[in-house]
Each structure stands twice: as structure tokens, then as C-alpha cells.
Amino acid sequence: MKRDLPSAVEGHHAHLAAIDPMPSPVELRAALPFSDMAARTVAAGRRAIRDRLDGRDPRLLVIVGPCSLHDPVAGLEYARRLRRLADEVSETLCLVMRVYFEKPRTSTGWKGLINDPGMDDSFRIADGMHLARRFLLDINELGLPVASEALDPISPQYLAELLSWVAIGARTTESQTHREMSSGLAMPVGFKNGTDGGTQTAVNAILSASHPHAFLGVDPSGRAAVLRTRGNPYSHLVLRGGSDRPNYDSVSVALAGKALQKAGLANNIIIDCSHGNSYKNHALQGTVLRDVLQQLGHGNQSIAGVMLESFLEDGNQAIPTDLSQLRYGCSVTDACLGWSATEALLREAHATLLAGKNAEKGRQTLSA
Ligand SMILES: O=C[C@H](O)[C@H](O)COP(=O)(O)O
Ligand SMILES: C=C(OP(=O)(O)O)C(=O)O
């Protein structure tokens, strides 16, 4: 629908095709209300992540799931499997499901389930937002906390109460809008280093997000408003590698830690095993994770967690014109580890960390 938008300037709306109304955040929340179970999952998920960042919980955070969520049915099947695995490895790993509905593109491409749920350029954003909130409720009701990327600055009004962790992506870490938004979010926010591999933009972002801001946004009724924030004390760094080289190695991690400390920030780092850290070769994510485990075994105190891109099927696929040709459970954006490789890798990580934990207990008993 194109609203009548008068302007004194001739041709002012020449590049605007239409303005479609959206239900307000309050309306969507009323249509898809919180359940007690979902509320408990979010509270427990956020607490566990804060405890890890504060050093009170020694478990490694693992943010794991598809590069993008395009099919809620396959997503739910993945979540059920992850939920079972989460229980099995809970002594050493805190699993959080990666549920990304908004994709920042290098230039063009499908921008995610919220933007285009039909994957056919029909851009039914109101339907996409409804699907996204429904899916987040379903996952939280399984008892699995959720991590997502916050890309659109209005989306959090609809969805953020269902998220336990949020990323600001490599392409938006330098954006003031995203830093301001993060300063008011209730959950820990991980800022990724830039696509060029530089960490200073993320350090600046963490500093900015930890401060109060006042900026334009929408209130829960969807009305334009001035949002005044208190600052987010749980913003932290995500190392995702750069266009020419990874940055998960111990030297890069130490240098990033020094940059955080120099800025007076907590030395908390999450390693994204995908993207620039694996040269976008999904099969290399295991190599990165094993290196991180080795760093932890050698006493690294700054790595709080890892991120893995994983789905039911290995690899990825282009979005076909005939959507009935889509392969079930296979990523339509970056390539992912398949479920069996994911499960094996996380069990291996659990066994490695458990062995380290038991060895430490043994040393303590001997020296007591
Ligand atoms: O994680 C996903 C992609 O790396 C990101 O959205 C950029 O994708 P593109 O370079 O294919 O646009
Ligand atoms: C887009 C993503 O990552 P990055 O911002 O690191 O490119 C992502 O994690 O989906």
C-alpha cells in the first residue's frame, strides 16, 4: 500500500515504492505471549552467560546452529537434537542455539526469514516477524536458550525478550545505531571484529555500548520515541577472523585481550569458528575448535565461548527458483557442519574439557 505522503518538494517520494503498516510490538506480543517455560529459559540462559562472562561458571559457551533459519520445521528438529545433546554435555559446555533471522549481506542476497519469509522477493515482513517470534517461543519452550544477530534496530522491540545472547555483526560493529541499541539490550551482546580483521572497531563498540545513550527508536506501541539507555555491562568481543587471515590463534587472542584491557574492558572473548576463522570452509570449524580447546588447556582465561555454524545437513545450497527443490535441513547462506559432525565435535570437546577438569581435580587432591 502506498500511503499518500504529501511533500512540498516535487519528486521527493520518487524512490519510495510503498509503505506497508506493521502490527506494533505490543500487538505481536499479545498474539504470541510468553509461556512460563520460555520466560524461565530466557532468564536461566542470560544468567548462565553472564556467569560465564563474570568467571563464575567455568563451562564453555557454545553458540551453535544454522547460519540462517529459513525453515522453522527443520529448525525445530535441529533444536530438539541440540536440546538432548545440551543435557549430555552440560557439565562442561553451555549450549545456546544460534537462530539467525536477519542476514547482513556483503552486497545483495536473501536477507533472512524476517525480511523475506517466502524466499521469493515478496518481502512479507509482518509474516516474517510473526514466524520469528513463534519460532523463538518454541525453542525457548524446549528449554534451549537462543542467540541471534540484532541487525534491524526496530526488531528487538518484537523479539529481544526471547533472546539470551545477541551478536552485532562484522558489518555493523562500527555503526553508532547498533552500539546505541546494544547499550539498552538486556542480554549480553557480542561485537564481532570488522570484516577486515581489525579488532579496534569492536573494542570501541564495546566501550560505546557500555555507556548510556539517548537515541531515536520506537516504543512498544510502535510510536517514534526517544530511548534512553543505561549502558550494557556485558558487551564483549567476538573474534571471527578477517578477509585475509584468521584470528583465533593464541597470539591474536592475546593481542585482542591487551586491546580490551587497554580500553579498561573485561577480557572476555568468544571465538567464531566459522567465517574468516575457517576461510568460510565449514569443515575447518573443528580445527579451530580444537585449537581453542588447546588454548584453554594451556590456561587461557579470556576465551569464554565459541560459535559454530551447523545444521541438519552438511554444506549449503543456492535458493532454487522452484522452492520445492530446497534440500531439507541444508543452509541457504553459509555452509554449515552437518548434525553428525556437530554432535561428534561437541562430544569430543566435552571429553577434552572433562579430562582437563578431572586432571585438575587430581592435582588439587595430591597437593592437599
Ligand atoms: O554469515 C553469513 C554471511 O557470511 C554474511 O551474511 C555475508 O554473506 P554474503 O557475503 O554472502 O552476502
Ligand atoms: C554474518 C555473520 O557473521 P559476520 O558478521 O561475522 O560476517 C553471521 O554470523 O551470520
TrEMBL record:
Pfam family, one: DAHP_synth_1
Annotated DAHP synthetase I/KDSA domain residues: 51-346
Entry keyword annotation includes Oxidoreductase: no
Reaction(s) catalysed (UniProt annotation): D-erythrose 4-phosphate + phosphoenolpyruvate + H2O = 7-phospho-2-dehydro-3-deoxy-D-arabino-heptonate + phosphate
BP GO annotations: amino acid biosynthetic process; aromatic amino acid family biosynthetic process; chorismate biosynthetic process
A molecular function (GO) term: 3-deoxy-7-phosphoheptulonate synthase activity
UniProtKB keywords: Amino-acid biosynthesis, Aromatic amino acid biosynthesis, Transferase
EC number: 2.5.1.54
Pathway as given in its UniProt record: Metabolic intermediate biosynthesis; chorismate biosynthesis; chorismate from D-erythrose 4-phosphate and phosphoenolpyruvate: step 1/7
GO cellular component, one term: cytoplasm
Transmembrane segments: none
Family: Belongs to the class-I DAHP synthase family.
PANTHER family, sorted: PHOSPHO-2-DEHYDRO-3-DEOXYHEPTONATE ALDOLASE DAHP SYNTHETASE (PTHR21225), PHOSPHO-2-DEHYDRO-3-DEOXYHEPTONATE ALDOLASE, TYR-SENSITIVE (PTHR21225:SF10)
Annotated function: Stereospecific condensation of phosphoenolpyruvate (PEP) and D-erythrose-4-phosphate (E4P) giving rise to 3-deoxy-D-arabino-heptulosonate-7-phosphate (DAHP).
UniProt-recorded name of the protein: Phospho-2-dehydro-3-deoxyheptonate aldolase
